[in-house]
Write a structure and sequence with these properties.
Length: 262
């Protein structure tokens, strides 16, 4: 299923810079599963409030029904939250037969693109927008599985290196929403500054104005023990996570400076 794509519908179709648009599962799923935070938007039931709500949340794409599924397969988005939060209550109540309509945004920032003029400045980035219907996870096995997936998406192997399984109070206070994705798209910008021809002909200006890319990535610092820590030195799985995440982020930011093939 390596060529599987989300359907192109008006709400998800990229119109500006269309060549930057991607609809395949692999691209979209990899963006979402590698960001630390997704932003979730949904309409509120208050007729007096015209504004949709937006929340930063932790989420992860996976399939409970097909746990060996890869990023090329159809996946659901699992969101973690407190049971009494507005989103979790609305997800439980649902807004129609399919669930609560939700929009999710995820973005990686890979570089600052500095051109000759401010109007030509840009970012190198990878972004994804997903649309789907949210329903609460009620089965204990699926809930525990999703909690483990989300925990390990924050720091690899963290779940097995904590006090698990969660106790009754923790299970009761935690709600997991499953979002069935119905449409999605990604938009990616990579490469160098693209200046207008007339500016490129102005040699004096080009000698005066520096152009190029400032590669950018999330950098994880040296882990610091908390005041109540009794476990000794930083465990190897945490060190390994920090090292790998920093290496991958730096590598991806530098790869983003390469002009994509046309």
């Amino acid at each position: 299923m390596g060529d599987a794509e989300y359907p192109k519908v008006p709400r998800s179709t990229i119109n500006r810079y269309r060549p930057r648009g991607k609809y395949d599962y692999q691209t979209i799923h990899s963006i979402v599963n590698s960001v630390p935070v997704v932003h979730v938007s949904f309409a509120t039931p208050d007729p007096e409030d015209p504004f949709p709500a937006a929340l930063p949340m932790i989420g992860f794409l996976a399939s409970f029904e097909n746990q060996s599924a890869s990023l090329d397969d159809a996946l659901d988005l699992y969101l973690h939250g407190y049971v009494s939060s507005r989103l979790m209550k609305m997800g439980k109540e649902g807004q129609d037969e399919e669930g609560l309509p939700i929009t999710v945004a995820a973005t990686h920032f890979d570089g600052i693109v500095l051109a000759l003029t401010p109007n030509s400045h840009s970012y190198n980035y990878r972004s994804a927008i997903l649309h789907g219907y949210a329903t609460p996870v009620t089965e204990v096995d699926e809930k525990l599985w999703a909690m483990e997936k989300i925990t390990n998406s924050v720091v690899s192997d963290r779940w097995d290196n904590t006090r698990v399984p969660p106790n009754k109070t923790e299970m009761t206070s935690t709600q997991i929403l499953r979002i069935r994705i119905v449409s999605a798209s990604a938009k990616i910008r990579a490469g160098q500054p693209h200046d207008e021809r007339k500016d490129m002909k102005d040699e004096e200006m080009r000698k005066r104005v520096w152009t190029g890319v400032v590669p950018t990535w999330t950098s994880y610092g040296e882990p610091q023990a908390g005041p109540d820590n009794l476990a000794g030195t930083v465990p190897e799985y945490v060190k390994s996570f920090v090292k790998k995440a920093n290496e991958n982020g730096q590598k991806r930011a530098h790869e983003a400076m390469v002009e994509p093939k046309k």
